[in-house]
Design a protein that fits this description.
263 residues; alpha/beta; TIM Barrel; two-stranded antiparallel ribbon; 10 strands; 38% helix; 15% strand; globular; binds phosphoenolpyruvate; binds manganese (II) ion; transferase activity; transferase; 3-deoxy-7-phosphoheptulonate synthase; aldehyde-lyase activity
């Protein structure tokens, strides 16, 4: 169902006043984790001012170590909702388990399935039944075919509002956190009508590489990016090393202008 052979025209996924897919390059931005009201509101204002169409922020965090910050949970969801109400920015946040789906649907506009859960089929079915827009991230070691089949689970459960996300894969290379697979973006754009976004933050894991790889994403034909930003990355509770500062986010948007403003 997600194949271009079934539907030739591009799917545009809408949530709130955001649209992903079609001619405009969509920038979704915000912190890795929601940490506090002050942190979230401050960064949300900055990314909105410079042209982000939606706010990202994790309330439930899939951390590699159980001793790392696990997210604010429901309090984080409430802050995301508040930011949306105050700024008019729809929100994207990760759902980690089936039991969280209904609750998250009340507070956020788009459900993220994280890389670690791409093959959690019960979760894919649950978000499919929810009908909320879903941002589906490629698994750390998943093939493109497996990503498409994961999307098929969501579609088959009744939800066609799916955004695919290339967020870097595991390779032998260790200089960067992951290897951003731009082949996958070009390939996916040919195979599927679903919008495809790139996550250059997790794709590289290095703040200084985020802007160049964002340009690359736009050049290769992605429908947008989801990018981490933090006004004080040194103090971030997760992924500070890959977060764009406020001035860097402004620079990113300057460089993406021709794509963001395309008719
Ligand atoms: C995230 O978006 O913060 C995240 C944990 O992403 P991924 O699932 O791609 O690792
Ligand atoms: Mn992160």
């Amino acid at each position: 169902m997600v194949s271009r052979e079934v539907q030739a025209h591009d799917t545009v996924v809408r949530f709130g006043n955001a649209a992903v897919g079609g001619n405009k390059f969509a920038v979704i931005a915000g912190p890795c984790s929601v940490e506090s009201e002050e942190q979230l509101m401050a960064v949300a204002e900055v990314v909105k001012k410079h042209g982000a169409i939606a706010l990202r922020g994790g309330a439930y965090k899939p951390r590699t170590s159980p001793y790392d910050f696990q997210g604010l949970g429901i309090d984080g969801l409430k802050l995301l909702q508040k930011a949306n109400h105050q700024l008019g920015m729809p929100t994207v946040s990760e759902v980690m388990e089936v039991s969280q789906v209904d609750l998250m649907c009340e507070y956020v506009d788009c459900l993220q399935i994280g890389a670690r859960n791409m093959q959690n089929y019960a979760l894919l079915k649950a978000v499919g039944e929810s009908k909320k827009p879903v941002l589906l991230k490629r698994g750390l070691s998943a093939t493109i075919e497996e990503l498409l089949l994961a999307a098929e689970y969501i579609y088959d459960a009744g939800n066609p509002n799916i955004i695919l996300c290339e967020r870097g894969i595991r390779t032998y290379e260790t200089a960067t956190r992951n290897t951003l697979d731009l082949n996958a973006v070009a390939y996916l754009k040919q195979r599927t009508h679903l919008p495809v976004v790139v996550d250059p933050s997790h794709g590289t894991g290095v703040r200084e590489l985020v802007i160049p790889l964002s340009r690359a994403a736009a050049a290769v034909g992605a429908d947008g990016i989801i990018v981490e930003s933090h006004l004080n990355p040194c103090e971030a509770l997760s992924d500070g090393h890959q977060a764009l500062t406020g001035p860097m986010f402004e620079q990113l948007m300057q460089e993406l202008k021709p794509f963001v403003e395309a008719a």
